[in-house]
Specification:
single chain, alpha+beta
């Protein structure tokens, strides 16, 4: 792992550290690359993991130690809103999620069928939106007969039948 240092391609005060491991397993070249970005105070704003030709189990799923390492990232960042995506990631299905000012994606690279990117990042959002999402009727109290609509970044109750 490199030291926490100024990002090479940024003049905004962004800091980063990274780790890469490459190995050759039975003639298959594999690598994993971790990139962590944040600020000088150590607040993390994004974590990227790139998997190249990752090890798979007999069922064609991502090898358990790799899934566990991605799970540990979510746990360490305290982003439990994304924990339920691990079965999809293990099955190498693309995932895109947003919740409470954070995003998480797991995607296959266009240029290589055997390369994947796992990215978790904080997204700058207005405090009102984060507060609204935290108290969202849709997220916490949804019912099958719900007809609330989402517009302008806020959930709106249905229009009154008799104003």
């Amino acid at each position: 792992m490199t030291e926490w240092r100024n990002a090479e391609l940024s003049n905004t005060g962004t800091r980063e550290c990274f780790f890469q491991h490459t190995w050759n397993e039975s003639g298959d070249k594999r690598s994993v690359f971790y990139l962590v970005r944040g600020n000088a105070a150590g607040t993390i704003s994004s974590i990227r993991v790139k998997l190249v030709n990752p090890a798979l189990d007999a069922a064609g799923h991502l090898d358990k130690p790799l899934v566990d390492s991605l799970q540990k990232i979510l746990e360490a960042a305290a982003w439990q809103d994304f924990e339920d995506v691990m079965p999809d990631i293990a099955a190498l299905r693309e995932v895109r999620r947003e919740a409470f000012g954070a995003s998480m994606t797991f995607t296959r690279e266009i240029s290589s069928k055997s390369s994947f990117n796992f990215i978790v990042a904080l997204k700058p959002v207005a405090p009102e939106r984060v507060q609204t999402e935290a108290a969202s009727h849709r997220l916490w109290l949804a019912r099958p007969d719900d007809d609330w609509s989402y517009s302008s970044g806020f959930y709106q109750p249905p229009a009154a039948a008799n104003p």
